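Q: Could you predict the 3D structure of 3-oxoacyl-ACP reductase FabG?
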Amino acid sequence: MFDLTGQVALVTGGAKGIGKGIAKVLASAGATVVIADIDETAGKASAEELGAHYFYLDVARQESCKQAVAAVMRDLERLDILCSNTGIFPQCDLASMTEQHWDEMHGINLKGTFFMVQAALEAMRTQGYGRIVITSSITGPLTGFPGWSHYAASKAGQLGFMRSAALECARDGITINAVMPGNILTEGLLAQGEDYLAQMKAAIPTHTLGTPDDIGHAVCFLASREARYITGQTLVVDGGQVLPESPEALI
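A: Sure. Here are the predicted structure tokens for 3-oxoacyl-ACP reductase FabG:
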């Protein structure tokens, strides 16, 4: 376990799912964790459970992102780690997709990432240190799935943003990297139903689905001091899902 004692970590979308898994692992590594989420009830409950702090956050609003970072700096006096994790993934086929569907997806997943990273960088530059980890996905950068073209575009966009942003702060002691989860057992995935889960398990070499903690451990590594020489990179956490070239490889 990497030691994050004395460091302050802000996890967006940390009320549940992958975000809660990230918050849990970072807290267990010694970080003071702030859960920032639009869901106040779940956010406060998760914060209490994990011994973390909670701040309200709507990543689609730039002022809300600035206020969340300002609150962290006011109450905890530093910000060492940003886990930009908030995301949505409503399914919609191209024929039915509206401009509103597209804009909502990108407003939260992609624009929200920009807003949070920009706000965090301002705080991190003053202390000459920072670790930013973005939660992207294998869907978009590496794979596709019917009904999620808008989601895939937002997740691929996050990585393009990350690479250029990493160059802008490379000399400031700040790194920006991303994790790319495969199918992780969250509330959202469970809502897809047993048939979907069985289909996903069959497509993964390990024949298992990941857990939020699996993503948390990957984030913890990228958020550590030891990862200082890694920036602008991605880490796939998917049980080998993107590896097979044919169904025979999964037998």
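Q: Anything worth pointing out?
A: DSSP finds nine helices and seven strands in the chain.
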